[in-house]
Amino acid sequence: MSAPGPHKRVDGAALVTGAGSGIGRATAIALSAAGIATLYLVDINTSGLESTKSSIESLKLPSPPTIHILPGSVASPEFVAKLFSNIPQLEYAVNCAGVMGENKPTAEVELEEFDGINRVNYRGLWMCQREELKLMLKNQVKPHQGFAIPQDEASIRGQRGSIVNIASQLAIVGKTQASIYTATKAAVMSLTRSDAIDYSKPPHRIRINSICPGIIATGMTLDGTGQVSGRLKDAISIAPMDRIGLPSEIADTAVWLCSGESSFVTGQGIVVDGGYVIN
Q: What residue intervals traverse the membrane (predicted)?
């Protein structure tokens, strides 16, 4: 039987992009609480990264992670190359970095705006995932450290690594005046599915999944007073749960997808949206 001492849902090293705020910050905190040993935090906002680090340290965890702050933009190939040259080993990656862009119909979007959104949301994520895969392919397959799991099951459920990409509910349904943003998130889901086909199977055994959040309480959705932006209230009411989601709810899903608890899940777009897309 596989029955480790203090149960850690994740261990080893994890990378979180977009970790300076919102979903990325919540994910970094959740991974720390789940037992991660080494944490690489990436964001263009250096002060946001410092705040995330302080939030983790304030938890007073019995075994806190070693935290590396790496400020920069995933839209830059030079930064991405430098970033991964500083990461010797990686078991988990959660790619949260993203931008929304202005609300405009396609005919009013300039090429520079199109490229700006794509450079972060799709090309930047792809560049990161490419390097994450290269690192994970160097890992040994680690058996699933579940509680009281038979050893043969632990081996079958083992993995070299797990990647989680943050897409959007708008990768599945359309939204007025957001064609470029929604297309980038659909691209993330397509990338997730295709790479999962190539890398989930033996001998690679790297799982790749995406999360499709609904409207989440972040700087993108709240106004200056911390209230839901007026333009989003009607959209929130579409969801059967009739409330805005919390960053921690996406973070908990990300930890589950990283961990061996989701060992038979790959290539999926897990929708966490209060039921928006079913209504």
A: none
Q: What is the pTM of this model?
A: 0.94
Q: What are the structural domain ranges in the chain?
A: 13-278
Question: 222: burial class by Cβ within 10 Å (0-12, 13-18, 19+)?
Answer: middle
Written as six digits, the tokens of 207 are 């799982």
Radius of gyration of the chain (CA): 18
What are the residues whose beta carbons fall under 8 Å from the beta carbon of 261, sequence distance 6 or more?
9, 146
Distance CA 28, CA 40 (A): 9
Q: Using CA atoms, how far apart are residues 160 and 95, in angstroms rounded to an integer?
A: 18
* pLDDT, tens digit, 9 for 90 and up, residues 86-113: 999 999 999 999 998 888 999 999 999 9
Kindly report, residue by residue over 115-161, the tens digit of the pLDDT.
Answer: 999 999 999 999 999 999 999 999 999 999 888 889 999 999 999 99
Instruction: Residues 13-278: name the CATH superfamily.
Output: NAD(P)-binding Rossmann-like Domain (3.40.50.720)
> Given the structure tokens 């790619």, which residue do they identify?
95
Q: What six digits make up the tokens of 88?
A: 């010797």
